[in-house]
Q: What sequence folds into this?
């Protein structure tokens, strides 16, 4: 039986009738059409489905929508504000940190959470923050460079966005 | 960054480029960072159904009966198909047409697809799959090269002519007996390279949409969106399996979430989605689970290798005899090409006056192996480079020096007939040696005070252990290892031998200023679509942002054979230049008339066409387009590319290995090995890559870093493990691949000495840089702790075992080694002997 729930996603409220065993990943993609959230394993192993729940990165494939009804959910689609990209999105694009781009939404959201906690993260802090996000294309090198550059941009702009 | 520091090496300064060589964002970068990029599984069509494959639980079994009735009766299930419904065999190679969309009579590995279901939602699929009853008669399963050789009576695949030998090849080039007779020293070694999976982050997915047309005797058309690297070949095979003319099949690759070779075959899930769509009249999506990706596989072949090499006292190579035994899995895939590739490129890195190669591929009851980044050349490169390191050690020659003494030279022919044009391997070796401090490290003094001084300037320390009493005993020991490699810039021959172009580009100019570029090339993340934009922008003098790109669509775009063999920049790039220059000639003709300036004085940039002698004399690009269209009508041009003919020998099998150019790479790896636990930490990789000319250095560096990362994974942790016929670790948790914590620092050095046939001098970067990484790490482990690990991955347990075998009193039986394969005196195929008509061509002075 489906259950009626309300999800607060990217600043919008959605009333949904969901099957209780469906994961947040499935509901975001299939019910809300937010296909920017990716999946690479459906078992919590790859990090591609990372979204922010109240600002913290979580794996949407291991989360049930029923559990997060009272939380603010941010997906990759919610990172832009009125068409303006988050500095991390800009630097990922400019510095070649997205190759195939499939892990990118998850890494961007984990990166945003990292910059909230550590506005000028060290390499070790970046590694720690992204240890659960697999990327098969980049060797992570350009990802670190892009986070570094975004941190600088945010710093120059007067703090974390 | 390193790139900026080093990008100047050998850069072509004859012409100032506007866009070529600039670190521009990719054309799809913003779609990817905002979540807008659509991958196959993101495509949702109205009334779409979901499909899934039922796969065999047995590694080898006869199918007695399949009962689909209960599944069909389940509400929400619209179709169930089995092997009899798609009986046409297919396969990527014309010589290995051995796959069925769904197994007929037999299953050959755990994961072999047996039936396919379409239903209204994935939950119903779960139930429906369980309701399909399959009765099997279990057959003996052969899981290794040795078992496949020992049990010819158990025939896995009818394609095998003798026992389970899928393909055997045997070649002798030049005077091999004379070569060994002339050697001062001969060494033999066995190696084993373990198989592994590409593990692209995107799982394979496709959506098929059948559009019926009752007025057409064919019945309708099928469109397939698929996460494929090779829409052209999927087009071809899907047409065959569905019994539709190619005119009625359209294959589109949307954004592809990584491939690395794993999405280069036509697959069962694609055939089944299309057939289920035809039967139900509704779109059908099939998305593989991660476990299915591991079972679909086509990954790196496990290969056992034997090498015998003769050298002079000074390290000059006099002869090499190389044998490879490939564990192919249950089907052909690219395996015949892979078999050839394990032998073909040994001659391209170092000068070999004679060379013998014998290879064989065995069928086993495992998921089919295929091409992975470095296709068939990665395994022998590991073996050859470790083997040469041993020879250098035996002869007390610096391993770097031994390599330098044997480098292939530009503009020569190899003894197996391959044409070599540009080669900057010497520069690559020099660069990694300098950047890594190779010579200083190996000449490092061993007193405590010197060590502290060196530490202060941040150079790696070789920590000296027990034998040196005045040093605090640290179990951590450092080593540096080096290796070199080469790779093709595109296969010189297409999969289906013909005289047609390998790549074509069509460009349409809009009178409003827009430019649309059409090309079948498939962007799997490497940036091939962006490359087209930069090239057309450079030629027509219009920013890349003005250019629209239509790619990887077999209906809309002219052919490109696919993203395999590191061919796209070279081939599609040259085709794009050809097409753009045709339009440029037309535009310049009109601009010349209008400006009263000779054509040769015109240049195009920033949407202007101007006189180079007087830049003030200029016309807007749009104006010139309109003038040209007024004279000639619609402005469309096409260009195409096929590699030159005379780049290989004239023997059977000479089609694998030739390429219009070869890239070269060199790697130094720095490792720290814990001599008490065997733990290997790769601290840093220096990788120099001879790319000819970067079209975009950001993307080239990205390919080098990605290749280094993937090589590191294969060297230290990635492996497929089977137990009782099943893949034991088909998940991203159990299949170890490098995370941020594992991956070493990677320093990229781009060597840019333009190739005369590459687009603006460019060569490949997608695959070659992976190859030297694995042997460099293996050699570094030896440099650190003095033990050789002759099989991959080089894990702590193997290193520890090797270290213990070195201890006094250890039994020699404990020493890790690769078990040799006994070979009957005659290789099971006809020996082909060949040598270049003019043997002097091997040396540069002969050209």
A:
């Amino acid at each position: 039986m489906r259950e009626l729930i309300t999800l607060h996603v990217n600043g919008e409220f959605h009333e949904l009738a969901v099957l209780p065993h469906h994961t947040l990943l499935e509901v975001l993609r299939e019910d809300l059409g937010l296909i920017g959230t990716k999946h690479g394993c459906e078992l919590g192993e790859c990090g591609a489905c990372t979204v922010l729940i109240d600002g913290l990165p979580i794996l949407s494939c291991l989360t049930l929508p029923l559990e997060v009804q009272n939380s603010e959910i941010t997906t990759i689609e919610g990172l832009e504000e009125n068409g303006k990209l988050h500095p991390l999105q800009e630097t990922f694009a400019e510095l070649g940190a997205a190759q195939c781009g499939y892990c990118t939404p998850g890494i961007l959201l984990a990166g945003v959470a990292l910059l909230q906690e550590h506005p000028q993260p060290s390499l070790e802090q970046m590694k720690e923050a992204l240890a659960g996000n697999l990327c098969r294309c980049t060797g992570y090198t350009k990802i670190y460079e892009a986070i570094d550059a975004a941190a600088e941009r945010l710093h120059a702009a007067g703090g974390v966005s | 960054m390193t790139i900026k520091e080093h990008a100047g090496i050998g850069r072509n300064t004859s012409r100032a480029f506007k866009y070529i060589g600039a670190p521009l964002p990719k054309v799809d970068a913003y779609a990817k960072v905002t979540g807008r990029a659509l991958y196959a599984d993101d495509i949702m069509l109205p009334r779409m159904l979901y499909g899934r494959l039922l796969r065999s639980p047995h590694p080898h079994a006869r199918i007695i009966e399949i009962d689909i009735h209960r599944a069909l009766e389940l509400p929400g299930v619209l179709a169930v198909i089995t092997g009899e419904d798609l009986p046409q065999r297919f396969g990527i190679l014309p010589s290995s047409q051995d796959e069925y969309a769904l197994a007929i009579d037999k299953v050959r590995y755990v994961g072999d697809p047996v039936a396919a279901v379409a239903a209204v939602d994935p939950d119903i699929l779960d139930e429906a799959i369980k309701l399909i009853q399959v009765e099997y008669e279990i057959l003996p399963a052969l899981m290794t090269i040795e078992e496949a050789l020992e049990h010819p009576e158990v025939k896995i695949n009818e394609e095998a002519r003798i026992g389970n030998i899928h393909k055997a090849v045997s070649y002798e080039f030049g005077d091999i007996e004379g070569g060994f007779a002339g050697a001062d020293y001969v060494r033999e070694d066995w190696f084993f390279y373990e198989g592994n999976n590409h593990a692209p982050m995107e799982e394979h997915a496709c959506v098929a949409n059948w559009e019926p047309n009752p007025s057409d005797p064919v019945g309708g058309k099928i469109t397939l969106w698929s996460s494929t690297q090779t829409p052209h070949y999927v087009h071809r095979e899907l047409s065959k399996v569905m019994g539709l003319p190619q005119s009625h099949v359209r294959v589109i690759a949307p954004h592809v979430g990584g491939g690395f070779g794993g999405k280069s075959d036509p697959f069962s899930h694609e055939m089944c989605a299309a057939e289920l769509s035809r039967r139900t009249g509704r779109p059908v999506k099939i998305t593989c689970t991660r476990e299915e990706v591991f079972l679909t596989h086509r990954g790196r072949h496990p290969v056992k290798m034997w090498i015998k090499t003769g050298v002079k006292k000074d390290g000059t190579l006099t002869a090499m005899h190389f044998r490879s035994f490939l564990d192919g899995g249950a089907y052909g895939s690219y395996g015949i090409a892979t078999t050839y590739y394990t032998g073909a490129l040994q001659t391209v890195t170092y000068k070999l006056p004679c060379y013998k190669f014998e290879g064989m591929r065995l069928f086993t009851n495992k998921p089919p192996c295929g091409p992975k980044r470095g296709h068939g050349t990665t395994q022998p490169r590991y073996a050859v480079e470790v083997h040469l390191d041993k020879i250098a050690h035996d002869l007390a020659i610096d391993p770097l020096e031994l390599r330098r003494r044997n480098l292939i030279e530009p503009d020569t022919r190899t003894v197996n007939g391959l044409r070599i044009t540009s080669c900057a391997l010497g520069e690559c070796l020099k660069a990694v040696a300098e950047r890594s401090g190779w010579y200083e490290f190996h000449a490092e003094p061993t007193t405590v005070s010197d060590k502290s001084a060196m530490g202060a300037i941040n150079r790696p320390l070789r920590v000296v252990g027990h034998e040196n009493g005045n040093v605090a005993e640290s179990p951590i020991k450092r080593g540096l290892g080096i290796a070199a490699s080469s790779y093709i810039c595109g296969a010189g021959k297409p999969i289906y031998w013909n005289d047609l172009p390998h790549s074509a580009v069509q460009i349409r100019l809009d009178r409003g200023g827009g430019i649309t570029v059409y090309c079948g090339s498939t962007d799997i993340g490497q940036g091939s679509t962006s490359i087209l934009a930069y090239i057309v922008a450079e030629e027509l003098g219009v920013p890349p942002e003005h250019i629209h790109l239509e790619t990887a669509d077999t209906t809309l775009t002219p052919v490109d054979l696919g993203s395999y063999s590191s061919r796209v920049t070279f081939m599609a790039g040259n085709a794009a230049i050809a097409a753009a220059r045709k339009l440029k000639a037309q535009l310049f003709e009109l601009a010349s008339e209008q400006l009263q300036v000779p054509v040769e004085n015109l240049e195009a940039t920033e949407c202007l066409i101007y006189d180079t002698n007087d830049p003030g004399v200029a016309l807007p690009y749009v104006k010139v387009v309109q003038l040209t269209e007024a004279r000639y009508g619609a402005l469309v041009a096409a260009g195409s590319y096929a590699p030159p003919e005379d780049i290989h020998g004239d023997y059977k099998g000479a089609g694998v290995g030739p390429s219009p150019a070869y890239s070269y790479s060199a790697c130094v790896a720095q490792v720290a090995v814990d001599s008490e636990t065997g733990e290997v930490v790769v601290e840093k990789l220096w990788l120099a890559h001879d790319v000819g000319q970067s079209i975009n250095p950001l993307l080239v560096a990205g390919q080098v870093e990605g290749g280094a990362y993937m090589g590191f994974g294969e060297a230290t942790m990635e492996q497929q493990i089977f137990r009782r016929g099943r893949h034991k670790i088909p998940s991203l948790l159990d299949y170890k691949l490098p995370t941020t914590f594992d991956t070493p620092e990677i320093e990229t050095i781009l060597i840019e000495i333009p190739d005369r046939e590459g687009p603006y001098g460019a060569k490949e970067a997608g695959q070659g840089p992976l190859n030297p990484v694995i042997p460099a790490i293996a050699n570094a482990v030896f440099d650190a702790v003095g033990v050789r690990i002759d099989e991959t991955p080089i894990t702590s347990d193997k290193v520890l075992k090797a270290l213990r075998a070195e201890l006094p009193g250890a039994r020699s039986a404990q020493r890790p080694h690769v078990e040799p394969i006994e070979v009957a005196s005659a290789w099971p195929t006809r020996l082909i002997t060949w040598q270049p008509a003019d043997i002097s061509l091997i040396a540069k002075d002969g050209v």
